[in-house]
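Researcher: Excuse me, tokens okay?
***
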Amino acid sequence: MLTEEDAKKLIAAALPEIQKTLIADVKQEIVRQLNYSMATVIRYAVDEFMKEHIVPEIKAQLLDSKAGILKATCDAASEISGLIQKAVVEQVAEKLSDKYSRQGILKVLFNG
């Protein structure tokens, strides 16, 4: 059985290692917190820089290209609309053709 004296001796013997581990853990936590803080500060600085300097430049470039962008968008929309119309017409024509084919087959079968 472990006596109080034995427990005190074990704790005293382990104390340097316990202190060393605690100090290492505290240092590691400090480094982790510093890394997190630095990342937060850097992220904020980059966001502010982007808002102040980059976003206005991008908007200016887009405005300079507005006519071309609008034309390309309208052309694409027109082309897509034409493709959709063509596909719908083809699908309707195919269904009508199938219907007439089925009707012709049924007439031959039932009317002899």
User: Anything to note?
Assistant: The mean pLDDT is 89.
